Amino acid sequence: MGTSTANVVEILALLILLQSVSSFCNGDNFNGSCIKTEREALVKFKSSLLNNSNSLPSWVGDDCCRWHGVTCDDITGHVVKLVLSWASIMGNISLHLGNLSNLQCLDLSLNPSLAIHSLHFPSSLKYLYLPYVSINMLPSLLELELWNCELSIIGDVSHVNFTSLEVLDLESNNFHSTIPSWLYNITKLQNLVLQDNAFRGSLSTDISNLNSLASLDADFNSLEGNIPNTLNRLCNLIELDLGYNKFGGEISGTFGNSSGCIKNSLENLILLNNSFSGSIPDNLGQFKRLKELSLSQNSFWGSIPVSIGQLYNLETLGLSQNSLHGKVSELHLLNLRSLIDLSMDGNSLVFDIDPEWIPPFQLHWIGLSSCEVGPSFPQWLKTQKSIRFLEMSNASISDNIPDWFENISSNILRLDLSYNQLFGTLPTFRKLNTTYASYLRFILLKSNQFDGFLTCSHFDATILDISNNLLHGQIPQNISDTMPSLELLSLSNNYLNGTVPATLCRIESLQILDLSNNHLSGRIPSCWGNLTSLTVIDFSSNMLSGEVPMSLGSQESLVSLHLQNNTLQGKIPMSLRYLESLETLDLSMKSFDGFIPSWIGESLSSLKVLSIHSNKFEGEIPLQLCYLASLRILNLANNMMTGTIPNCFSNFTAIAMHEQKGHWDYYLKDVPLLYETAGYGENVQVYVKGIELEYTRTLRFLYSIDLSGNKFVGEIPQELMNLSGLQNLNLSTNKLDGHIPWNIGKLSSLESLDLSENELSGSIPFSISDLNFLSHLNLSFNHSSGRIPKGNQLQTLDDKSIYIGNDGLCGPPLNNCSDDADELPKGHEKGGTTRKDDSEMVWFYGGMGMGFAAGFIGVCSILYFNDSWRCAWFGLVDRVYNKLWVTIVIKANQDSMLFETAADVELNLNKAPPPFKV
Q1: Which residues pair with 490 in a beta bridge?
Q2: Edge-to-edge, what's the strand order for the sheet holding 543-546?
Q3: Within 10 Å of residue 746's Cβ, how many Cβ atoms?
Q4: Which of 193, 244, 400, 646 could form a disulfide with 424 if both were Cys (CB 3.0 to 4.6 A apart)?
Q5: What's the pTM?
Q6: Tens digits of per-residue pLDDT, 843-852?
């Protein structure tokens, strides 16, 4: 369309959808000098008005900055504001206003006789206010595009005459509302784009009013409910995209047997990533014009209808990530001569295709992961010369890769055959076609049974993952020559030997290097200074020796460093202090010695995991470790460390706040979303619940402190109890003394607690029964005494070995306590075994004593000052005393003088009792 129409579109957009009044437009005129070209633009604007002789009478003279409604910049002289509200001007808004190149505010409001014809907006315009300006004079408007305008309100514009509007594009705004009803009345609309607006609610049955509609794009919203059956009356609809919403129910009503005239026009049906269910309608085979059928990521079940095979125009068939089952044969694909994209991964489908069958198509994309394609490698792929993406991971293939595979490999950008039972030698790949020379090439063959030697002639890859196979031999020295653009190399869990080739340091693009769990030996090369993109280095579980090279400290982008379980020795090199982005540092199970460097806490502020267990570190824990607020896993176990546990461990904010932000999988930088599955999954071994576990996918949920197997002394810090997110606490095999903290119940997330083999005394605090998630407890071989607390989760921990070696403990699951054993006061430990309980009991008895004394003194004071009360009181006491005396004497005589005469008894009764003394 022309410039005029485009300008109309812009002004109409703001009229309908913007609320843009601003105090900016209300400022006073500046006293600047007028620029000639801008004065001429204003004069031409006035001349275009119908009543120009009577309008704007002050617009005379050379200095336009003094004219009514005109404001100029007092330095540059440019017109920056034009405020003409209530100016009684009539006619059309002129194009000449577009020459005000520095105009920031335009207010033409409340001029009902002013109409929009065309307007060229200056790029400097910030505020536009046009209420009551006539916009109902655009019956010829064909296109209105408002995409990515950051709009939030879509009002009622039913009064606007959109009689000719054919294209309405509202993509990428922020309406957060239902689709307005007036939209369904624009009957000549052909293209409607509602994409990415957070629209909610359902799609109205009035959609059938748009009988000229050819394209409806409403993906990436929050629309829900069923697709209205009236949609099938849109006889001109070519493209329907409702993907990435919340639609549900079955689609048979719209696209089934009663599908109406839509089946004669529809070419693209995109319903992916919703909640549709039911079976795929067999009637879809009648949609002969279909080019794209995308039903992936829903809940469709049942088998794939054979009628799909009749869609001879179909180019894309997307059925992945559903609950489909049954067999797929060549009948399903027989007439799909235009097919390019076949995606059925993530279903329980069984491919039963004749090995002699020759497909009528040339596929670019094949996605069959998690389907049962094997056991034989599919022979029908032999004819597919244009494959770019081939994904058949976890496809039950138990075979070797045939020799002919090399012939179809030159166009393959992504190959994923992981998690099968492929055997034999690694396949050979032809060099990537020059057409795709600038593309990344992914080769993922992990978790198979490939054996033989690794030779780089097999590959021309950017990402190479052949981990968890049976490969042996050495890593080729020419790896940097054959794969100079390598970004990810994972050879872990094989049987590779020899040294780490120094030629790896020549691959400047390398980001992730994983050589773990092999038989590599020798020293780590000291050439790493040339690499600036490395984020992950994992050399763990090999036989590497010598010291850690200083050059590793030059990797400023390094996020994860694993050197554990080798035979490295010496001290941690100071150069590692420059790894400011480091999140995981695992140097465990080696022969490092000396003191833990204080710079770990001072410089590595991003650390989440610090694991240096099973070394020969000595000395105290540096207090600088408390600076690591992001730390989630601290493992210092099995060293020779001494001193006390720092109180400042409570500064581990991530544990205290139970943070779960961030991720633990590291992907390649600047890699398209398509490739994001290739990366490195962080892994850490932690001794939890009495066994050593390797955490990978669940690592982000783990919070652990392990200081076991050292020589720490002193009491367990009370401050440690503030780490409410802590799940694993192991302080066993030290020399800790004192009591178990009375408030240990504050560790509300604790699942595993091991305090065994220390010198802890006193009773087990009652609050330990508040640990509702506790599933592993070991308090053995201490000096604890008293009753074992009962209740809640402790009832399930009935293994006697939990408490063995504490001779003073009693109660289930040990022997019952003796009758004279002190009972636990309600809510407290026995005998006041903690300082807090002792203090509370002192105050309790002290208060009781003071209360008794106050009451006694008060009674005595009343008796002293009030004679009548005093006489009554002592008279009462005297009578009670006499009665008690008589009772006692009678009882005594009955017991000791059974044969005494009645006279003797009479004599005794007549004796006066001894006087009562106050």
Answers
A1: 465, 514
A2: 521-523, 543-546, 567-570, 591-595, 616-619, 640-641
A3: 18
A4: 400
A5: 0.75
A6: 556 667 677 7
